[in-house]
Amino acid sequence: MPGLIARAYGTMNWEDLFSAMALVLVIEGLLPFAAPGSLKKTLAGMLALGDGALRLMGLSSMLLGLVILYFVRG
Questions:
Q1: Residue 20 contacts residue 27 (beta carbons within 8 Å)
Q2: How far is CA 20 from CA 13, 14, 47, 53, in A?
Q3: Spatial distance between the Cα atoms of 39 and 28, rounded to a whole number of angstroms
Q4: Which of 2, 27, 53, 66 is the right S-S partner for 49, CB 3.0 to 4.6 Å?
Q5: Which positions ≥6 away from 71 have C-beta within 8 Å?
Q6: Neighbours of 48 (CB within 10 A)
């Protein structure tokens, strides 16, 4: 299977992968840096949510990311 993927999409560009990881870290750090109090309140509220609600939020976030990636990278 990896060979099939490599033939279909070309070789993997490690620079793009690490750039994407770095961008995730930058975006993840924005809220704690800009509004730490709001982040604490949000995380405290998330503790009250059940596992199902958190899983649904995670799934929704992943699907939205895939849709955006599909349109951006085509």
A1: no
A2: 11, 10, 29, 27
A3: 11
A4: 53
A5: none
A6: 7
